[in-house]
Amino acid sequence: MRSSSVSRVLFDVNVPRPVSRLLTGHAVEFADQRGWRELTNGDLLAAAEHDGFDVLLTADTNLRYQQKLAMRRIAIVALSTNAWPVIGANPDPVVRAVDTASPGSYQDVRLARPPLRRRPAPPPKS
Length: 126
What we know:
The chain has 126 residues and is α/β, with parallel strands linked by helices. The chain is 23% helix and 17% strand. It has 4 helices and 5 strands, in the order ββαβαβααβ. A 5-stranded parallel beta sheet has the order 2-1-3-4-5, with helices on one face. Helix 2 links the parallel strand 3 and strand 4. It is elongated.
């Protein structure tokens, strides 16, 4: 899928819906709207390929270890987080991964989480 072509992207149930607004050049559908919420990973991949999807966008980074991907036609883009604030703050790697996905490819998109803010320690009791 070159950036000049429109690809069909299936969002796994663990990907926040607002991410779809980032993929303006693609046709996006959601697994749960297709009645695929309860499908296991292997069945989801098979259904997506059967229905002609080009890319599966997921936040399941273990998918590559749980499934035999060598014979798959669908491209898989796996996000390191499904936290919308993190994805929304740095959307370029996600868009680039989907734009450059090719049949049967697997891409990990690592997004840095912001550092945790710690609450100040309470003052010592006197």
